[in-house]
Amino acid sequence: MKNFKLFILSLVAVVFVSCGTSNTVPITGRKQNLMVSDGDILSLSTQQYQDFMKSAKLSTNQANTAMVKRVGQNLANAVTSYLTAAGLQNDLQYYKWTFNLVQDNQVNAWCMPGGLICVYEGILPVTQDEPSLAIVLGHEIAHAVARHSAEQMSTQIKQQYGLQIGAAVLGGLGMGANTTSIIQAIAAQGFNFKNLSYSRNHENEADHMGLIFAAMAGYDPNAALSFWQRMAASNKNQTSEFLSDHPSDATRIKNIQGWLPEALKYYKPQSTAKAVTTTKKTTTTTKKSVTTKKTKK
């Protein structure tokens, strides 16, 4: 009887591992297995974003605010065109592109699922120009397009479910049972998108995709090198890459150098020339007849 129970529980474990939705990350082609739907995660992230914005103070700098929204929208348009051309237009319903600049001295920016983005004023002295800002926003947008939040939630669900299955197997052997449900475990732990720390693999993937998104939007991807060099110079509390979820600045710069040839294939500089209407003025020259009188001597 115990062997039969173990067989059933093992079968459940196999079925669990094979369930979920298979997904391919755009540009990188990496395969994912997701346990949560885009609709559900968008609903959760929208609520969290709205809650944050209620307490946040929007920047009063109109020029910088306009720049963030302009660069962000250019990137959103490029991503929309790319996804449509790639046959992924159905994914567009799960994006609500939003770009806000808030009063905060932190050198930071983040993106919740669905393209809900917040930029802190503290990062602007490091970006310094629009191409560098595009690198930052492209990176954050890439997290959303690559469904990194959904992937992390799926990992947590699998871990919780795996514990339940393991406990059930042990229970079949008479070693106790796990009575905590997966929903309760996830709810108790919570999932704060704003403070979400992605893995180094996700950060590398976002760097790669974001570089290409910036190029697609007409921003020079070479700006990423100088931006990350400035970030490295401003980072006074260097943390060992081994102990960090983020790759080191040196690793980032090296990776970007390797991706630049690919990104430059997508790069078409934005037209900065403004249409100038030249009005041709008709000049009427009046020829005056000059009579020269000869003076008799």
Q: Can you describe this structure?
A:
By secondary structure, the chain is mainly α. The chain has a domain at 21-150 and 192-234 and 243-264. Helix content is 53%, strand content 7%. It has ten helices and five strands, in the order αββααβββααααααα. The chain has a three-stranded mixed sheet. Strand 4 (109-112) and strand 5 (116-120) form a beta hairpin. Helix 1 (2-18) runs antiparallel to helix 6 (148-172), helix 5 (130-145) packs across helix 8 (200-216) and helix 8 runs parallel beside helix 10 (249-264). It is globular and about 40 Å long. The chain starts with a helix and ends in a 33-residue tail after the last helix. The model is unreliable at 1-18, 165-188 and 272-297 (pLDDT under 50).
Average pLDDT figure: 78
Instruction: Give the uncertain stretches in residue-range form.
Output: 1-18, 165-188, 272-297
Fraction of helical residues: 40-55%
Overall strand count: 5
User: How large, in whole angstroms, is the Cα Rg?
Assistant: 28 Å
Overall geometry: globular
Strand order of the largest sheet: 3-5-4
In whole angstroms, how far apart are the ends?
A: 147 Å
Strand content: 5-15%
SS element count, helices: 10
Return the string of H and E elements. HEEHHEEEHHHHHHH
Task: Please describe the topology of this protein.
Blueprint: H1 2-18, E1 21-24, E2 31-34, H2 38-55, H3 62-85, E3 98-102, E4 109-112, E5 116-120, H4 124-127, H5 130-145, H6 148-172, H7 182-189, H8 200-216, H9 223-234, H10 249-264
Parallel strand pairs: 3-5
Antiparallel strand pairs: 1-2, 4-5
Helix pairs in contact: 1-6, 3-5, 5-8, 8-10, 9-10
